[in-house]
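Continuing the batch. This is chain 6 of the set; chains 1 through 5 are on the previous pages. Same settings as before, nothing changed between runs. Recording input and output for traceability.
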Amino acid sequence: MIITALHISDLHRDSGSAITTDSLLESLRRDRERYTKRGIPTPDLAVVSGDIVYGVISDGPNAESLLKAQYVEAATFLTELADMFFHGNRERVILVPGNHDISHPHVLRATEPTPIPAEATQRALLASQLSEDNSTWRWVASDFALRRLVDQDMYRRRLEPYAEFYAGFYAGKRSFSLDPSKQFAVHDLADLGLVVAGLSSCCDNDLFNRAGRIHPDCVAGATRAVAEHVKNGRLALAVWHHNLAGGPKDTDYVDADVLQSLIDGGFVIGLHGHQHRPQFLQHRFTADRKMAISVVSAGTLCGGPKTLPSGRMRSYNLIVLDAEQRTGTVHVRDMKNSGFGMPVWGEAYVDEFSGASMTFGIEIPVRPASVIQASAEAAELMQKGDLAGAYGLARLHPEDGMARRVALEALTRLEDWAELQKFCSPPRSAPEFIALAGALYEVGNKPALAALLKSDYARESTDAGIRQAIDLANSRLGGR
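Output for chain 6:
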């Protein structure tokens, strides 16, 4: 099965942005028409790797309302993106926070200015404490000043605006915890053969402490949650925001050692943003050189001229995965015009790719799930009421009798007549013939229904159920 992920990052949505939601969505729609004509499949899911909004870096009287307006704009864009690409299914949109999503007003209220110690030994002690995880000290380089964290509860709430946006986007079906050890989410996309873990790399992160960090309990929780899915043959993807390396003077990245734990947990692909440029890296597991994770970064989708380095344009990725062939291809799309308010996308040129795309191998840790496993899992999903998930998984095995029965029942209960018409054409069993006849009537396709009644399958069948379905269909067609 071929799966395509729309990988976008660093949206930096802002009511004062140089690009409106309508203009951005229309540009992505036009580009979809362009790349699908060139053989890139339409996306099956979207991964949004952080920096949903630009943020507000002040504590003025209207700071919170300005930040809320940014999240409203972001929610509108992402909701309409789900409508445009995934028929309104917001579970197909994976969200994680970035450093811009942290509320600076909360951080300012949680910290207070503190005099720099005059005594040398105290300054030396302070210098060592500044670099510790969970440090309560912050160095404000721009002011050459020191701040201390004095309100832990307020500090933990610095992602509260993001959490409210997150819960609203998923209509209350998902929530984002303010506890750093629980800031991860697992999206099981059974019909795509994928399981995706969204991780926050903003543990301890704020405007004064720019280093990214994923809480170890989040990594442990994610690997535990996907373990059974990986055993059943799902491809496991992890998503976070910060990049994995930086220059000698940089601090705003995540320690790449976290990848060892992700690889050990069965993750084969990692996606991030933050650095505003596309890149591909592959990391191997030191304990087993056969295990690896392919890490792909995306450029900024909406960043303006002030956030882009000279000569670099906005960009996004399309990642096409083929689990059967164990390959993936990154296609980079970038902005081809200079009008930041009305982007036109096309094939990028990435130096390290020597072109617009790059194909890589996927080191799948276990064999894909057997047909029996997949069919049984689809049946279990249907029993739990997840009819769409059951059909999506069952349709991957059209030659298996049990899988077809599950798919047929799921579509019938969903009353998805158009999809049922496609699935049952031509019918392979009496139940499929009966269902197809009913679906053709429901969608008003009387010519196709008449042709079905005259088919060899109908003429040669002695099944009582089929004969009854033919009589009913003939009466609906007026005796023809």
